[in-house]
Design a protein that fits this description.
The protein is mainly β. It has no helices and 9 strands. A 5-stranded mixed sheet has the order 3-9-8-5-6, with no helix packed on it. A 4-stranded mixed sheet has the order 2-1-4-7, with no helix packed on it. Strand 5 (about 50-55) and strand 6 form a beta hairpin. The N and C termini lie far apart (about 30 Å).
């Protein structure tokens, strides 16, 4: 399993959640998620090909191997659009409060 080093904090705050985004058939699902600072986003790639979750603001660039997962911890508020560099039609958005 590849774990992204970007945005990983020392410890998640009490009450932090893990939010899973499934990648299947070249789609991030759900495509839009709401989260809080300290929450963890996990991308679970069910496809037989690799993908990325790349922030448009260049905050992170996570590679997710086929049939594996990767995660980041959210460290600041804002709305972050992201996409797959390999398949740019794959898009998602995370709103962090």
């Amino acid at each position: 399993m590849f774990l992204a080093a970007a945005l990983i904090g020392a410890a998640a705050p009490a009450g932090a959640e893990t939010i899973t985004v499934t990648i299947e058939k070249l789609v991030f699902a759900p495509a839009q998620v709401s989260a809080h600072v300290g929450d963890t986003i996990v991308w679970d790639n069910k496809d037989f090909i690799p993908h990325t979750a790349t922030g448009r603001n260049h905050e992170w660039d996570v590679t997710i191997a086929a049939h594996h997962s990767a995660k980041i911890e959210l460290t600041k508020p804002g709305t972050i659009d992201y996409f797959c560099k390999i398949h740019p039609n794959m898009k998602g958005q995370i709103t962090v409060e």
